[in-house]
Amino acid sequence: MNNKFKFLAITAAAFFIGFSVNNFAMSEVPCNCKIAVVDVMQVIESSSQVQAARKDHQAKAEEIIKYIEKARKDVAATTDEKKKKSLEEKYNKELNTKRKAMEKDYFTKLQDINKNINNTINEYAQNNNYKLVLAKEMVLYGGDDITEALKKSVK
């Protein structure tokens, strides 16, 4: 037990010493590269493609709600228990198919939008000689904020 504790203490000390030396060494290295930061959520929210996809998704969701209401009325109006059960199964299958199609369509649109936004960021960075672009949420200090320029690009 004592040997395990010593080994763990030595390993932890070596890690922290190595980490400190690395940070000290890197603090002396000048950075000649341009670094940008971007608030990705702001860029996404300003995208007309995202807004159109949300609007389309909402419209399809409302169609499904109307379909559910119609199905409930049809099932409630049926008095024969066998027909009622058959009708419920039919509507449930159709509803699941509609939901899956709606979600797949929305997911595909969001993937395409994501690719478009990533390509816009890459293109902007290359055209403006940025070597590194980071999410603004991950950076405490530094970097050129390119969010506004990208918001204009994705409209």
Annotate the secondary structure layout.
Layout: H1 2-27, E1 34-38, H2 40-46, H3 48-77, H4 81-127, E2 130-135, E3 144-145, H5 147-154
Parallel strand pairs: 1-2, 1-3
Helix pairs in contact: 2-5, 3-4
Task: Provide a descriptive summary of the structure in words.
With 155 residues, the protein is mostly helical. It folds into two domains: 1-30; 31-154, Protein Binding, DinI Protein, Chain A (2-Layer Sandwich). Helix content is 76%, strand content 8%. It is built from five helices and three strands. The chain has helices at 2-27, 40-46, 48-77, 81-127, 147-154, and strands at residues 34-38, 130-135, 144-145. Strands 2-1-3 form a three-stranded parallel β-sheet, with helices on one face. Helix 3 packs antiparallel against helix 4. The protein is rod-shaped. The relative contact order is 0.17.
CATH topology of the largest domain: Protein Binding, DinI Protein, Chain A
Total count of domains: 2
Overall mean confidence score, pLDDT? 83
Number of strands: 3
Helix content: over 70%
Please report which band the strand proportion falls in: under 5%, 5-15%, 15-25%, 25-35%, 35-45% or over 45%: 5-15%
> Quick one: CATH class of the largest domain?
Alpha Beta
Major sheet summary line = 3 strands, parallel
Low-confidence stretches: none
Main sheet strand line-up: 2-1-3
- CA-atom Rg in angstroms: 28 Å
- Output the structural class: mainly alpha
Described by the principal axes of the CA atoms, the overall outline is: rod-shaped
Second-tier CATH architecture of the largest domain: 2-Layer Sandwich
Distance between the termini: 63 Å
Number of helices: 5
Order of helices and strands: HEHHHEEH
